[in-house]
Specification:
It is globular, with a radius of gyration of 25 Å. Helix 3 runs parallel beside helix 10. It folds into four domains: 111 residues, 3-layer Sandwich (Rieske Iron-sulfur Protein); 178 residues, FAD/NAD(P)-binding domain (3-Layer(bba) Sandwich), CATH 3.50.50.60; 114 residues, FAD/NAD(P)-binding domain; 39 residues, no CATH class. The chain contains ten helices and 37 strands. The strands form eleven sheets. It has a six-stranded antiparallel β-sheet. Strands 15-14-13-19-31 form a five-stranded parallel β-sheet. One of its GO terms (cellular component) is mitochondrion.
Length: 541
């Protein structure tokens, strides 16, 4: 059997991609039904002139060679756009100056060991290639040519790249999609969050050209979920991670409003709720969490929300405007929603079982400082109590009754009391699940079943920086990395996860950024001024 694999690469991308030292793309191997197939991406020698359209090119002298010391970065203007000029180990590099995730100025980030890290959310880029090496975000940085002439540093760049400030990595496409049986796929991804999408994109970036199907209970294509509580009036198309055309171009099929009810690991079949069955060769389970509901009297009353979708978030904003809002749970979701609605609602009340918000996560002192900021922004706290009843008038929420006896007026209620892993459908599958419902994986994101991988909020995995302690880290950044590691190991790369967990939250114009995994800390060392919210806290044990 002769297999012809053709990878179509846009002209602009050909030149930008890093080749192996001999100027040819390295061969890739993946296994299908146990047999290894070797294939090459189309081989192209490195072009002597990488910019095919001279009108799209700009070249400018940006500084003297002595203007930058080793380890320094500078934003430079080329007339029609800016670039980030970097000097490290005596060499100059030039890449895009904005982080493709949310547009942060990378010149304010950290340069270390050939990488620049975003100052806002921790995405990390290789300064030699521009490639993204840690998340969040999906795109890499454009890389520009640097030359030195007569002690001056020149940058040569594509105008388009200077304007877009992002580069999507070269990807393979699926060969002869029309020949496939509808009910069978090589890779099936259950869940269309960050982990699922990054897995699919990484497979295509690595040259995988077989069928990929993603399925999701959501009605939308993958979207930026953190914005549901941080920017609640965003519409689905505004927060989409990729446009519809992207999925068509790279043959990543997405089945929306499709729920998997069971997985038959012996026959490699996923059974959907509507009875449809799909065979797979490799499986990624990235189903995330299901929010916990209230168990009190009146929980079925109208206008009580768990925020799961853009529609939920939009509806809450509409109902809350100039009305009374009660938020149950001082979780990240609860606190972000309170901050977002504080200016829009007539009143915002927050009910929490603990004595201060974020106590288990940030410790009591940091929690109190955050609480003080909320109180100065008209958010009222009812701590160390919980909801005993939701009262209605004509079917709609009217009052929230607390166990302390206090009755709060409420037109809308948002519930943020935590979540449980969405893994109920795997109970009889034979896939190893711990007592809390998390899927147990190794450092390669593999479950106990060969060919079955899991990623994102629904897993526990060994965390390198905590002596391989099995942890659950439900961070947006970590879900991206899980998806990437799973994809590389589907292709037998033997890649282990070693990322440092990172999360951020934003409230009232203040951003809290957290790196590491401080679970089980017994002391907090604080440097700076907590009252001014200009501080660093170290969680120690």
């Amino acid at each position: 059997v002769e297999v012809k694999i053709e990878v179509v690469i846009p002209e602009k991308e050909r030149s930008k991609e890093e080749m192996s030292p001999n100027g040819k793309a390295s061969p890739l191997v993946y296994k299908v039904n146990g047999t290894a197939r070797h294939y090459h991406l189309e081989e192209h020698p490195i072009a002597s002139n990488p910019y095919h359209n001279p009108k799209d090119v700009v070249e400018a002298s940006v500084c003297h060679v002595k203007d930058l010391e080793n380890g320094q970065m500078r934003e430079v203007d080329l007339g029609c756009g800016k670039a980030l000029l970097i000097k490290e180990s005596g060499e100059f590099h030039a890449v895009g100056h904005k982080c493709p995730h949310y547009g942060a100025p990378l010149v304010k980030g950290v340069l270390s060991k050939g990488r620049v890290r975003c100052p806002w959310h921790g995405a990390c880029f290789n300064i030699g290639t521009g490639d993204i090496e840690d998340f969040p975000g999906l795109d890499s940085l454009p890389r520009f040519q640097v030359k030195i002439e007569k002690e001056k540093v020149y940058i040569r760049a594509s105008k388009q790249a200077l304007q877009t400030q992002r580069r999507t990595k070269m990807m393979a496409k699926c060969i002869s999609l029309s020949n496939y049986n509808l009910s069978s796929t090589n890779v099936l991804i259950i869940g269309a969050g960050a982990a699922g999408l990054v897995c699919a994109e990484t497979l295509r970036q690595e040259g995988f050209s077989d069928r990929i199907v993603m399925c999701t209970m959501d009605r939308h294509l993958p979207y930026d979920r953190p914005k549901l509580s941080k920017s609640m009036d965003s519409h689905p198309e505004q927060i989409a991670l990729r446009p519809k055309e992207f999925f068509c171009t790279y043959d990543i099929e997405v089945l929306t409003e499709m729920q998997v009810a069971a997985v038959d690991i012996k026959n490699k079949i996923a059974v959907f709720k509507d009875g449809f069955k799909m065979e797979y060769n490799k499986l990624l389970i990235a189903t995330g969490n299901t929010p916990k509901a209230l168990s009190c009297k009146g929980k079925e009353v109208e206008n009580v929300f768990n925020i799961r979708t853009p529609e939920d978030a939009n509806r809450v904003v509409k109902l809350a405007t100039s009305k009374n809002v009660v938020i149950v749970g001082a979780s990240f979701l609860g606190m972000e929603v309170a901050a977002y609605l504080a200016e829009r609602a007539h009143s915002v009340s927050l009910v929490e079982l603990e004595e201060v918000p974020f106590k288990k996560f940030f410790g009591e002192r940091v929690g109190r400082a955050v609480m003080k900021m909320f109180e100065s922004n008209r958010v009222k706290f009812y701590m160390q109590t919980e909801v005993s009843e939701l009262r209605e008038q004509e079917g709609k929420l009217k009052e929230v009754v607390l166990k302390s006896g206090k009755v709060l007026r409420a037109d809308v209620c948002v519930v943020g009391v935590g979540a449980v892993p969405a893994t109920g459908f795997l109970k009889q599958s034979g896939i190893n699940i711990d007592s809390k419902g998390f899927i147990v994986v190794n450092k390669m994101m593999q479950t106990n079943i060969p060919g079955v991988f899991a990623a994102g909020d629904a897993v526990t995995f060994p965390l390198a920086l905590r002596n391989n302690k099995k942890v659950n880290v439900p961070h947006w950044q970590m879900a991206h990395m899980h998806g990437r590691i799973a994809a590389l190991n589907m292709l037998a790369h033997g890649m282990e996860i070693s990322t440092v967990p990172y999360l951020w939250t934003a409230m009232f114009g203040k951003s809290i950024r957290y790196a590491g995994h401080g679970e089980g800390f017994d002391d907090v060392v604080i440097q700076g001024d907590l009252d001014e919210l200009k501080f660093v806290a170290f969680y120690t044990k």
